[in-house]
Design goal:
Low-confidence stretches of chain B: none
Shape of chain B: globular
Strand order of the largest sheet of chain A: 12-21-20-19-13-14-17-18
CATH superfamily of chain B: L-arginine/glycine Amidinotransferase, Chain A
CATH class of chain B: Alpha Beta
Strand content of chain A: 15-25%
Mean pLDDT of chain B: 96
Low-confidence stretches of chain A: 1-8
CATH architecture of chain B: 5-stranded Propeller
Helix content of chain B: 25-40%
Strand content of chain B: 15-25%
Oligomer: heterodimer
Number of strands of chain A: 21
CATH superfamily of the largest domain in chain A: putative lor/sdh protein like domains
Mean pLDDT of chain A: 89
Radius of gyration of chain B: 17 Å
CATH topology of the largest domain in chain A: Rossmann fold
Shape of chain A: elongated
Number of helices of chain A: 14
Structural class of chain A: alpha/beta
Number of helices of chain B: 7
Largest interface: A-B, 17 and 25 residues
Distance between the termini of chain A: 31 Å
């Protein structure tokens, strides 16, 4: 399910009242909605306590298209279902740069609409824990982080005139189609990986055709290198299966350390033993790249010829490296201001159709925060608490795999045709 | 003594087509219509023993004769109809005036909320049925229900030949019900069956339904219905009713029969 899909959802709330229970008018209206291909939620059903007292029901109707919604409304109106008049959302100006008005509406990661001048408008750039800025002249709305607010921006306040659409079950019958938060070390991995691979194959084709929303994002930690997943990930990038990479200083440093010294944090990758003075290798690597000026220059000048970074540079895969307080160096290109790093990552999110969060608590959670719920997400970690943490936050399109990064990437690459 | 509102057929005729029964080419034999109407009045007054209130007919309002569509009367309140078709809307003021002149509190539903009176609202003392979709708007029933503290079960009319509820459903004084099931969808049929047990319900055959067996007037144990409905009559006899038949075929050209020609006042 793509985010585009989800934003196409139309919904309307209708009210039905009178003696609608015994007459089966409510049943008829609900049947009509279903028969015509819509779905509904029953809200506030009040059943009359005596025979004389009328009952009432509020029904939220959801459809895949506006046209179908209109057809359904037309069909149920003769049975007394009337569209409820709904309030427009309220906005207040931001009192100062970086300060939201009190009572600002905080977003979820679900598709959201606000009512502006009697019209439902999609909130663009949906992501959890942001505010919504309204452009009244254009009649548009976009999420905005607290820090980017400018004095006078019109910000949605309160909950009136805001509606959030729960995700519908995606049409695909794969592991993402169940829409539950799966986190288990026991479940067989192979069919999950096969489903991910088939998604990636499909998205890869769409990406080649230049279709929007077909990018595969990988956010990964350095354990990918330590665990031996470097070759598989390099292959995936070279074959055009990964389109955006989020990582930190460490993944890039150890990837290039492996190239220059054959070690990862000082451990020989092939021999698996600590190498003498090996702990210095990543520092020397970082220093070398700093001297060259950029990772890109290191690749184009032939200093770095192979590996994840080299593949990204050659394939034109954008890399956002977000720094942390424990970083050495850091490498050129690492964004050390975390608010700026967030913005850089956020800028990459709109084209993403699948996210793989591999072996990094920090990057997995940060990326999970930025993704709308409509983006299928796979979280792979040997520590079950990481996928659990994401699942608990309501990213219920997230599939959790408790396994090590190298096995995951190797299996995934094999499923996508990497020769073994 | 029961009182019924009636209107002599002086200007009755077919001047437009607003239901499948009406054909401009199917001319009304006026003299015959007048004779049939008077015979109905005679039966009502002399055989059944009701009091009749006659309102004055008006030229240009051919359907004023169908007083069942004037509105509904509940106690001293008259809810005046709002007709779906403009052809009959001119009757509204005339009916309203009659109710006012006779001391009724007149209630009107908002404009555009169609309601065709006792043609679409009829029932038992403790609950009513409301026909909708063809003429009346379902949204009128919760309003009337609240106003009169009465349960109103809406029933969708799905056959255009039975465009008013009183053409296909007739509650009787003993709790029985005559109805033509196919005039309702399955939801309506279930709702009816849920309320009126099997033994009390007569599912009228299509043949007799098309002769307007359900457009009967029930006053106590008397039932006045059009001729040509022997099976319905036989069933009514087993339930202890006296039946009175009247030739009303001239009015059927317009889609109405016995019940349509009267409005219960109290």
């Amino acid at each position: 399910m793509t985010s585009e899909h989800a934003m196409n959802h139309s919904q309307e709330r209708v009210a039905l009242q009178g003696h609608i229970i015994d007459s089966l008018v409510l049943a008829k209206v609900l049947d009509l909605i279903l028969m015509m291909g819509g779905t509904f939620d029953l809200e506030d059903v009040h059943i009359g306590k005596t025979r004389e007292e009328p009952s009432r029901a509020r029904i939220v109707i959801r459809t895949a298209s506006k046209a179908l919604l209109d057809d359904i409304l037309k069909a149920i109106q003769p049975h007394g279902a009337s569209v409820e008049r709904e309030a427009n959302c309220c906005t207040k100006p931001a009192p100062a740069d970086g300060i939201l008005p009190e009572e600002f509406y905080a977003t979820t990661h679900l598709p959201t609409q606000i009512r502006l001048k009697e019209r439902w408008v999609d909130v663009d750039g949906i992501e959890m824990d942001l505010a919504v800025r309204v452009d009244e002249q254009r009649g548009t709305a976009h999420t905005i982080p607290m820090g980017e607010v400018r004095e006078g921006d019109q910000i949605v306040v309160g909950r009136e005139g805001v509606r959030v659409t729960p995700l519908q079950r995606p049409p695909e019958r794969d592991v993402f189609g169940f829409m539950e938060s799966h986190v288990s070390a026991e479940r067989p991995h192979s069919h999950v990986i096969a489903d991910i691979a088939s998604r990636m194959r499909h998205l890869g084709e769409q990406a080649r055709l230049g279709q929007a929303g077909s990018n595969v994002l990988l956010a990964g930690g350095p354990a990918i290198i330590h665990a031996g997943g470097r070759e598989a990930l390099t292959w995936l990038i070279e074959q055009g299966f990964i389109h955006v990479l989020f990582c930190g200083n460490a993944l890039a440093a150890h990837d290039m350390e492996a190239e220059l010294y054959g070690t990862s944090l000082g451990y020989g990758l092939s021999a698996g033993r600590a190498v003498r003075h090996g702990h210095e290798h990543h520092l020397r690597t970082i220093n070398r790249i700093r001297a060259i000026g950029s990772i890109e220059a290191a690749v184009t000048s032939g200093v770095i010829t192979h590996g994840i970074m080299a593949a990204c540079v050659r394939q034109g895969v954008p890399v956002v490296m977000a720094g942390t307080i424990r970083d050495d160096g850091p490498l050129p290109g690492v964004v050390t201001d975390s608010v700026q790093a967030q913005s850089a990552m956020r800028a990459m999110v709109p084209g993403v159709g699948l996210a793989l969060l591999v072996a990094s608590t920090l990057h997995a959670v940060a990326t999970g925060n930025l993704l709308p719920a409509t983006v299928p997400t796979v979280c792979v970690d040997v520590n079950p608490s990481v996928p659990t943490k994401l699942a608990d936050r309501g990213s219920f399109q997230a599939v959790g795999l408790v396994m090590d990064a190298a096995s995951f990437l190797a299996e995934l690459a094999r499923a996508l045709g990497r020769p073994t | 003594m029961s009182r019924l509102l009636v209107c002599p057929p002086d200007f009755f005729g077919i001047e437009y087509e607003i239901n499948p029964w009406m054909r401009l080419s199917n001319r009304v034999d006026h003299e015959r219509a007048v004779r049939q109407w008077h015979e109905l009045m005679r039966v009502l007054e002399q055989e059944v023993g009701v009091a009749l209130e006659r309102m004055s007919p008006l030229q240009g309002l051919p359907d004023l004769v169908f007083t069942a569509n004037a509105g509904v009367v509940v106690g001293r309140t008259a809810v005046v109809s709002r007709f779906r078709y403009p052809e009959r809307r001119r009757e509204e003021a005339h009916f309203e005036q009659w109710f006012r002149e006779h001391g009724y509190d007149v209630m009107r539903t908002e404009e555009g909320l169609y309601f065709e009176g006792a043609g679409d609202l009829l029932g038992f003392p403790d609950y009513w049925f409301g026909g909708y979709r063809q003429r009346s708007d379902i949204r009128v029933f919760p309003i009337l229900s609240e106003r009169f503290h009465r349960e109103i079960i809406p029933l969708e009319l799905v056959d255009s030949r039975f465009y008013h509820l009183d053409t296909c459903l007739c509650p009787l004084s003993g709790g029985e019900l005559l109805y033509f099931p196919e005039a309702f969808d399955s939801y309506g049929q279930m709702a009816i069956a849920e309320r009126v047990s099997d033994g009390l319900r007569l599912a009228v055959s299509e043949d007799e339904a098309l002769k307007f067996a359900c457009n009967a007037i029930c006053i106590g144990k008397h039932i006045v219905l059009p001729v040509g409905c022997p099976a319905t009559q036989a069933w009514l006899h087993t339930r202890g009713y006296d039946t009175h038949t009247v030739h009303l075929d001239e009015f059927m050209k317009s889609g109405g029969s016995a019940k349509c020609l009267t409005l219960a006042l109290d």
